[in-house]
Specification:
five-stranded mixed beta sheet, 5 strands, 4 helices, globular, alpha+beta
Length: 154
């Protein structure tokens, strides 16, 4: 398995994985999520490719077969909290048949290394309570809860 930065040629493979990730959310919370037709527009993908404050990596078992991906963004400014560099792990996904092979761990570690190289003070992410597998991974990687969002259906 190889982990590398995504290139414009990886767009269609990346799109397949983002559609799976989108469907996972729709299936878990159909009351909240709607299926997106254009889950990751090509223009946004290309903008991420040239943005030095964005990291997009893919995990490949063959040169053109993407089995996992991760996207992270460097944040610098906030009007509410102390101004420090923070890397937000925006998305991480591994194709179901390749899970439990350490791929998500390697993708996470690559983001963590990039965050250190950017001088980030911390790594943050948001996840849904229904995604217990991801929560277990994040805890195993040393992450701790920072805040909670509650809801009450009416």
């Amino acid at each position: 398995m190889i982990i590398r930065k995504l290139t414009p040629a990886d767009y269609h493979g990346m799109l397949v994985l983002y559609r799976e990730l989108d469907q996972f959310h729709v299936d878990a919370r159909p009351d909240f999520f709607v299926r997106q037709e254009d889950v990751f527009p090509q223009e946004a993908f290309e903008a991420n490719m040239i943005n030095p404050e964005c990291l997009m990596l893919g995990a490949f078992d063959e040169p053109d077969n993407m089995i996992g991906l991760v996207r992270a963004t460097l944040w610098k400014e906030s009007g509410m909290v102390k101004t420090v560099k923070v890397v937000c792990l925006d998305d991480i996904y591994v194709v179901p048949e390749y899970r439990r092979d350490g791929i998500a761990t390697k993708l996470f570690e690559a983001v963590e290394q990039w965050a250190r190289e950017q001088g980030a003070a911390r790594l943050e992410l948001h996840t849904w309570d229904f995604n217990q597998g991801a929560i277990a991974l994040y805890c195993a990687m040393g992450m701790t809860p920072q805040r909670y969002v509650f809801e009450k259906k009416l």
